[in-house]
Amino acid sequence: MRLRLGVAGGGGGGSRGGGGGVANISWKGILVLCLASFGVGLLFTDRMWRNLDEMEYVRQQDCSSQKPKPPDGEAAAAMAQQKDIFEEVSKTHQVIQTLDKTISSLEVELATSRAQQNQNMITMSTTSTMSTINPVLLQNAAAGEPAEARQKVFMVVGINTAFSSRKRRDSVRESWMPQGDKLKELEQEKGIVVRFVIGHSATAGGILDRAIEAENAQHSDFLRLDHVEGYLELSMKTKIYFATAVNKWDADFYVKVDDDVHVNLGMLATTLARHSSKPRVYIGCMKSGPVLSQKGVKYYEPEHWKFGEEGNKYFRHATGQIYAISRDLARYIAVNQALLHRYTNEDVSLGSWIIGLDVDHIDDRSMCCGTPPDCEWKAQAGNVCVASFDWTCSGICKSVERIKEVHRRCGEGDGAVWNALL
Question: For this UniProt entry, which segments traverse the membrane (predicted)?
Answer without folding.
Answer: none
